Amino acid sequence: MFKVLWNALVYRPIFNILIALLYLFNGNLWRAIIILTLLIRGLLWNTTKQQTQMQQWMWDMQKKMKDLQDKYADDPQMLSQESMKLMKEWGLAPLKWCLGMLIQLPVFIGLLYVIRSFAEWTISADSIYSFVVPFAWQFLDTANIDHNFFGLDLFAKNNIPLTIIGAVFVYFQTKLTMMFQPAQPKPAASAVGQAMPD
Questions:
Q1: Residues 101-125: tens digit of each pLDDT
Q2: CB 65 within 8 A of CB 83
Q3: Are 115 and 32 in contact (CB under 8 A)?
């Protein structure tokens, strides 16, 4: 049952979009992968944006929670009730924090599986949609796919240089994401530090 859903909802759509992009780019795999990744990012933009907003809300809420913890330090039951009340006020459910990641994860795992099926020559003609067959069937044969990326073979196993390039891109993407997030205030200096004599 899981495999059927996985194929229908994740694997086959990504596979067919990649096949169509291979046709558009004359079999150039790295261009097709870049455009497919950008398309997926575009489709998930709203989810990513909500996740960024959620991080800011969580930061703001942490300050409110700290106030509640100070106020109800001796009454755990009241603290729990007020904490849940605060979460409802802000419209934050405890599991909502992970929702964005949970939506994105299967899509990018699906992309990985599709590329791996090309690399291992385990492509099945059953995976291709009938309306894609007339113009893209030739890319079911990996001999018709240009899988070189600036001299690196995208289908090669244990490709260390490609892994390093991927890690560098992930690093810079993380840095860019952090640059566009609102700045979080620094914690105030301790009372002891402020009270030090000159």
A1: 666 778 778 888 887 887 777 777 7
A2: yes
A3: no
